[in-house]
Specification:
Elements: H1 4-18, E1 21-22, E2 25-28, H2 41-45, E3 49-50, E4 52-56, E5 59-64, E6 68-73, E7 79-84, H3 94-97, E8 107-112, E9 116-121, E10 128-132, H4 135-141, H5 156-163, H6 170-174, H7 185-194, H8 208-227, E11 269-274, E12 277-282
Antiparallel strand pairs: 1-3, 2-8, 4-5, 5-6, 6-10, 7-9, 8-9, 11-12
Helix pairs in contact: 1-8, 7-8
This protein binds a DNA duplex (16 and 16 nucleotides) through helix 7.
DNA sequence: AAGAGGCCCTGATAGC
DNA sequence: TGCTATCAGGGCCTCT
């Protein structure tokens, strides 16, 4: 489900609701996520205060006291739900668990606070939670990832240097998290459309100007998506159940067979599989 | 060593 | 109605 904008929306609503709140209880209903939950998961979190909720790339970071962290990755289908307990403090109340706001199945983890709880749901279980005990280890955890698009480090010099001796397709480059982290399969199509660059273009053929355009448009698209609350294809919602609106702004994603939206272009949006993922582009105005 | 491709998993939808 | 096939926002691993 989530690329950087959706994860940021989840982070914002999480931070608003659980910052400075103490975890009362953790219930693990299924520990077999992408990585098996460590045995001390429950003990690690219980009775600790969440100092704040931050994010790097597509990872949510629950900051705990004494430089301890719990990172959450939503994979393809993970969602976090904020459920308020109308019956106040009764943590074992069944109606609280069976909230109509929750999906019926795959509610794997519940983090219970006073009068509300956060529930992690993930049908495909590609998501995961990991515990990290020092800042050093937190940095190490993300060390293989490239800068976010907003980072000053994501500049032309870095770009040109990275693509040196590489011949992969530009679509493949932009979803490579080692190059730039946070862009996923939806936004790469939108960024390349805005840049008028064909997703098949080999990176060794990109000139400096094109690199610059990609850098700028990556920021533009992701920021716009964040402003619109993310993209709700299928069923993305923030923790409080509101949908995003950026899907209404898609120029190419899932628009195969439809007219190109670029003014003056008579092209038709095409869908092709690149790097094992559906890719959408106009083969008239994207060269 | 870069790049292509497969795999982890469940559910929704399309096609017969 | 009910079967099977295909596809889905990610990331990691293996093979060539």
């Amino acid at each position: 489900m989530p690329e950087l904008p959706e994860v940021e929306i989840v982070r914002q609503s999480l931070d608003k609701n659980i910052k400075q709140k103490k975890v009362k209880k953790v219930i693990i209903r299924n520990k077999n996520l992408r990585f098996k939950l460590p045995t001390h998961f429950k003990n690690f979190l219980e009775n600790k205060k969440i100092t704040r909720v931050t994010r790097f790339s597509k990872y949510i970071i629950l900051n705990l006291p004494k430089n301890e962290f719990c990172i959450i990755h939503l994979g393809m289908s993970g969602t976090l739900h904020l459920i308020k307990d109308k019956n106040k403090n009764n943590l074992t109340n069944l109606s609280f668990y069976n909230s109509p706001l929750l999906p019926k199945n795959h509610n794997h983890i519940e983090i219970i606070f006073n009068k509300f709880k956060v529930v992690y749901n993930d049908p495909r279980r590609f998501g995961f939670f990991q515990l990290i005990k020092t800042i050093k280890n937190l940095n190490k955890r993300f060390s293989h990832l490239g800068p976010e698009p907003f980072d000053k480090k994501f500049n032309v010099k870095y770009f040109k240097n990275f693509i040196k001796n590489k011949k992969k397709k530009v679509k493949d480059l932009l979803i490579d998290q080692k190059f730039v982290s946070g862009i996923g399969n939806i936004y790469v199509s939108e960024i390349l459309f805005l840049s008028k660059i064909n997703p098949y273009k080999k990176v060794n053929l990109l000139n400096k100007k094109e690199c610059n355009i990609i850098i700028e448009n990556s920021k533009t698209i992701l920021l716009k998506a964040i402003k619109k609350g993310g993209s709700s294809i299928r069923d993305f919602k923030n923790t409080e159940g509101s949908k995003g609106n950026f899907q209404d702004s898609f120029k190419v994603y899932q628009r195969n067979g439809l007219n190109c939206k670029r003014i003056g272009c008579k092209g038709i949006i095409t869908k092709k599989v690149i790097a094992n993922r559906s890719t959408f582009f106009c083969n008239t105005c994207q060269n």
